Amino acid sequence: MDDGARVWKVYRKEATAHDSALLDGWNSTLDILLIFAGLFSAVATAFVVESYQLLQPDNAAYTAAALYILVSATKNSTGISLPAPPDLQYASALTRWINGLWFTSISLSLIVALLSILVKQWISEYRARNLASARSPRDWAHRHENASYTCGKIQ
C-alpha cells in the first residue's frame, strides 16, 4: 500500500482513540492509587510513631541499674545490704514483630507510590511518542506497532 493511503490515516485515528481511552483509564486509576498510598502512609506513620516508642529502652531502669552498680561498688566499705538489682526491660518479640509489620507496610506503600509514578511517566512518554509527527501515516503506524510491542502490547 502507498504511504499516503487512507487506511493508514484511519488506523492512526482509531489507534489514537483506543490508546487515549485506555491510558486515561490507567491514569485515573493510578491517581486514585497514589492518593490511597499517601493516606495509608500517613496513617501508618502515626501508628509507627506511637509503637516505635515501645522499642526504646526505659531510661529510668537504666539509671536505676547504673546507681545500683555504683552503690554495690561502695557496699563493701559501708556494709549496707542491697536489694536485688532492677530488671532491665527489653522490647518483647511481639513488640518487635508488630513494629516490623508497621515498617513493612509503610515501605510497601512507598514502593507502590514510586511504581505508580514510574507508570504515569511511562504513560506520558507513550502519549508523547504517539502524538509525535512522522514522515507518513504508514511510518506512524509502523512506529506505533513497534512501540506497542516494545513497551508491552496495549490491549
Major β-sheet annotation: none
Cα-based radius of gyration, to the nearest Å: 32 Å
Q: Assign an overall shape.
A: rod-shaped
> How large is the share of residues in beta strands?
under 5%
Give me the strand/helix succession.
HHHH
The portion of residues assigned to helices is: over 70%
Number of helices: 4
Strand count: 0
Pfam families: DUF6535
Keywords: Membrane, Transmembrane, Transmembrane helix
Protein name: DUF6535 domain-containing protein
InterPro entries: DUF6535
Characterization of this structure:
The mean pLDDT is 81. Helix 1 (6-52) packs antiparallel against helix 3 and helix 1 packs parallel to helix 4. This protein has helices spanning 6-52, 59-78, 93-131, 137-150. With 155 residues, the chain is mainly alpha-helical. The chain is 77% helix and 0% strand. The protein has one domain (6-80, 93-152). The longest helix is centred in the N-terminal third of the chain and has 47 residues, at 6-52. The chain crosses the membrane at residues 32-49, 100-119. Residues 8-145 form the DUF6535 domain. This is DUF6535 domain-containing protein. Keywords: Membrane, Transmembrane, Transmembrane helix. InterPro entries: DUF6535.
Features:
mainly alpha; DUF6535 domain-containing protein; DUF6535; transmembrane helix; transmembrane
